[in-house]
Amino acid sequence: MGLRLKFNLILALCFLLGLGASSLFLFKVLQQNATEQLHAQIGVLRAQALAVRRYTSEEVRPLLIDLSEVQFLPQTVPSFSAQTAFANFRDRYPQFYYKEAALNPTNPSDRATDWERDMIERLRADRSLDELVNIRETENGSQYTIAFPLVIKSESCLTCHSAPERAPASMVALYGSKNGFGWKLNEVVGAQIFSVPLQLAEKQSWQNLQLVVAAMSAIFLVLMVLLNALLGRMVISPVSKMARIAERVSMGEVDQPEYVHTGSDEIASLSQSFNRMRRSLDNAMKMIET
Questions:
Q1: Nearest Cα to 150, choosing from 72, 69, 82?
Q2: DSSP H or E run through 97
Q3: Tens-digit pLDDT string for the chain (290 aa)
Q4: Which of 56, 96, 193, 289 could be disulfide-bonded to 78 (CB atoms 3.0-4.6 Å)?
């Protein structure tokens, strides 16, 4: 096995080990960055939902409050408006999910499913949580989910949800008197739940990792070519020339010229030692002949 081959094998092994370790670390970093991007996306979606809720509460509801006394209008309810606007958003991005789920909602469509109920109960159990992150598996793949607690902070909310007799008659006529009542001040009654697909972020992470690995591999190949060229010129070629001269001298061709390698490196020192040894050998042979 030649020196060049040994050098390339060791270099390739070091590269593969380094590439494997760095790729594992880089993939974890990329996954963390992808998760942070998903978290930021949900933050934007929530800000939009809260903006719709505020607009409905401050702009729409005052205009329709008189009509609601005759016929209850769900469009005056902030949560209804926010979820309806998001439903229009989902027409283009169906993989995103938003729901204001409640344990005991007035509108049956807002009732929490089993997995939503579990997140709400965890928020109720630990009031220090501002949000609850969960990765859930669905038939469409993994979903990055965050639940934000819905807390009754205003007495005005209890007008519609404390007892049926206090609620607007039009609302009771529409939804009945069995659901959406018994809420208490400062109670976690539900959660704003957002989900975004994790698959897209994972796919982007893999693509970024493949791009980095390809770039590192290309750089390694260029470096290997340059190092092989330097190795051949500075080490292998001089050593090969000295080996050929030594072989010819050993076969009796004593008229071979000396090999001189200029410089102050190890190869130059080796060539000087080789020439001194050859001259000493020549002198010894002449002494034997005389």
A1: 82
A2: strand 97-102
A3: 677 788 888 888 888 898 888 888 888 888 888 888 889 999 999 999 999 999 998 888 887 777 766 778 888 888 999 999 999 999 998 889 999 999 999 888 899 999 999 999 999 999 899 999 998 888 878 899 999 999 988 877 777 788 888 888 888 888 888 888 888 888 999 999 999 988 878 888 888 888 888 998 899 899 888 888 887 777 777 777 777 877 777 776 666 777 777 777 777 787 777 777 777 777 776 777 66
A4: 56
Question: Terminal CA-to-CA distance of the chain, rounded, Å?
Answer: 43
Q: CA 195 to CA 204: how far, in whole Å? A: 18
Cα–Cα distance between 55 and 57 in angstroms, integer?
Answer: 5
Indicate whether this model's pTM tops 0.85: no
What are the chain's domains?
Answer: 13-202 (no CATH), 207-289 (1.10.8.500)
Q: Which amino acid is at 163?
A: A
- What is the H or E stretch that residue 45 is in? helix 3-55
